[in-house]
Amino acid sequence: MAEPNHLFRAARVRVESPEAPGEPLARRELAEMVNAWIYEQTGRETAIDGNYIGKLERGLIRWPDALYRQAFHAVLATKQDRELGFRRPRRTERNTEDVNRSEFLRAMAGVGAAVVTGSFTELATSPPPDVPAVVGREEIDQLRMAARLFGTVDHTYGGGLVREAVAGQLRYAVNLLNARCPERLRDELFTSVGFLAHTAAFMAFDAYVHEDARRMFSLALACAEEAGDWHLRAKALSSMARQAIWRGDPDMGLTLVDVAFIRAERLTPTERAMLLAAKARALAKLGREQETLRIIGQADDEFSQSEPENDPVWMAYYDLAQHVGDTGHAVFDLAVRNARHAPEAARRLDGAVTGHSATFARSIAISQTKLASLMMKTGDPQEAAIVGSAALRAAGQVHSRRAADDIRELGTFAKRHERIDEVAELRHNIQTVTSSA
To answer: Which InterPro entries match (predicted)?
Structure first.
């Protein structure tokens, strides 16, 4: 029989009912307040009701969804899960085995997509060779190493080059969830699988296999939630926001960033700068000029406090060049509407081009292309043609649909100056390269 959760009930009855002053908060009222808080924070509609609250109080549910827990803390003015009697269910060796791949994937709403072809269901039911019966430190370290190596390849050559190889590694990683794992390593296993899933997802995003990317980002987020890893959670939500913005849905991008900022005090300054840069890009797409500039200022302030040694391994890419590049893209969108922002956009984009090492070839190509487009729009078209030709050569070295689309955009900006010989030659080269691609 389940043990009643007296702490949760006590927290509820301490709150006064808004409908009956002097009386404790009713179960129905608490459910409505939690639903309202989640909607205000995320735009997500939930259906928590008095019956669900009753299950919590009777101890039938001891570990609600992470977002639900955050909402209960906000409404009941608590901070720690133990204050509400929330705790992870203990796992015996037997039920640790039961955290198998199919159950895990069914628990993750919407996580059932293809990596290259097929589906995650197929992925999880076709075990690769040599999956150990017990997962230990060695396997977890190998997953992390694979994620880092594939991430480096992605930054240098683009997401289209080794997606199938990443798919194989992710298949192996998901199947590891079927093996026994010591409880002390369990969270690390989920974080490592999530890290690899995020790497695979970003490659899919860069290659425009968007549905795969969306669901693999969801897998990364689910792993982060399962592990209680706020850092991986922020990274997954940041990348999901970037994908939404890129696909023309900046409102969704803002929502995802706002969700990532729940309990932002647990994140490092570098992570907060990353999230604020994504928010600025969404606001700029919406044409909200003053808000964009204000958020960029906040992002700069956070980045000025960055201490890389305190960041998780997947944040190593977010250095000064990355920061000025990400915020420079936001200012670029303002500058194409209002040329007074062009000098600041150019300063930031140029800082990204000159600041990145050769490892980040894709980032160099994308920022250099944006800089050339900015100059075509607001500056000297002949100088823009020189920068654009360099960007075209850089983009030719990476397999990135995003970089290719930015090159096409440069060709569109150049059209108004096509009577200038250098610009005409650039447009011809762009058409040749993009047509063959």
So the answer is: TPR-like_helical_dom_sf
Q: Which two tokens stand for residue 93?
A: 């060796």
Domain end, chosen from 196, 213, 228, is at 228
76 and 108 in a common domain: no
Q: How far is residue 82 from each of residues 8, 26, 77, 91, 143, measured CA to CA in Å?
A: 9, 22, 13, 18, 32
Going by pLDDT thresholds of 50, 70 and 90, the confidence category of residue 170 is confident
CB proximity list for 223: less than 8 A, separation 6 or greater: 190, 191, 193, 194, 197, 229, 232
Give the pLDDT confidence score for residue 116 in this predicted structure: 31
Domain count, the chain: 2
Q: Are residues 105 and 221 in the same domain?
A: yes
Are 78 and 123 part of one and the same domain?
no
What distance, in Å, lies between the first and last C-alpha atoms of the chain? 63
Task: Give the span between the Cα atoms of 172 and 123, in whole angstroms.
Answer: 9
Q: In terms of Cα–Cα distance, which of 128, 110, 129 is closest to 120?
A: 110
**Which of these three, 228, 255, 288, is where a domain ends?**
228
Backbone angles phi, psi at 134, to 5 degrees: -125, 130
What average pLDDT does this structure show over 110-114?
32
* Span 247-291, pLDDT tens digits: 999 999 999 999 898 888 889 999 999 999 999 999 999 999 999
State pTM to two decimals: 0.71
Residues near 294 by Cβ (< 8 Å), separated by ≥ 6? none
Q: Are 433 and 406 in contact (CB under 8 A)?
A: no
The structure tokens 């592990």 sit at 227
